[in-house]
Amino acid sequence: MAADEKSRAKTEQAKGRMKQVAGRTVGNDRLTAEGRAEQAKGDARQAKEKIKDTLTD
Predict the structure, then answer these.
(1) Quick check: 39 and 20 in contact, CB under 8 A?
(2) pTM of structure
(3) Were both Cys, which of 34, 37, 46, 54 would link to 9 (CB 3.0–4.6 Å)?
C-alpha cells in the first residue's frame, strides 16, 4: 500500500470517527451522518489499496 494513500485512508477514518462522535454528543444528526460517510470513504480507500497490493504481489 502506498504510504500516502494509507495515511490518507487512516486520516479519513479518524476524521469520520471524530465527526460522528461530535455529532452524537451535540445531537446533530447531519454531522453524525457526515462522519459515517467520511469513515466509510476511508474504509473503501483502504480496501482498494489492499486489493491493489494483493494483485501486484
Answers:
(1) yes
(2) 0.81
(3) 46
